[in-house]
């Protein structure tokens, strides 16, 4: 199963912490975390909402991956000790079973940071 989806604050913290670490390389981690927390509390709702949206998209993507993993079964061949895994497709009300060109948006298999950066430009 996939790792837990990062919440909005964790996504914000990743971005801001790396920026602050470059600016203040000698700042202790504890102070850096406290500063990021205060920054988050003071952010405008539209900025916080942006991270909430990213978190929600990642959660949906992660849930789809987990659903596919739950459909796997195995091991099936006990006689010779080998393990086989099969994934059964659920084609009822499942957009993921459509060919890629017919999907609204394909699921990302890249890591979270690459996926987020492919959708949003954080360098604004």
Automatic annotation (TrEMBL):
Cross-referenced Pfam families: HMG_box (PF00505)
SUPFAM superfamilies assigned to the protein according to its UniProt record, in alphabetical order: HMG-box
Domain HMG box: from-to ranges: 2-52
A molecular function GO annotation: DNA binding
GO cellular component, one term: nucleus
Keyword Oxidoreductase attached: no
Coiled coil: none
Matches recorded under Gene3D superfamilies: High mobility group box domain
UniProt DNA-binding region: 2-52
Swiss-Prot/TrEMBL keywords: DNA-binding, Nucleus
Protein name as it appears in the record: 25680_t:CDS:1
Native species: Dentiscutata erythropus
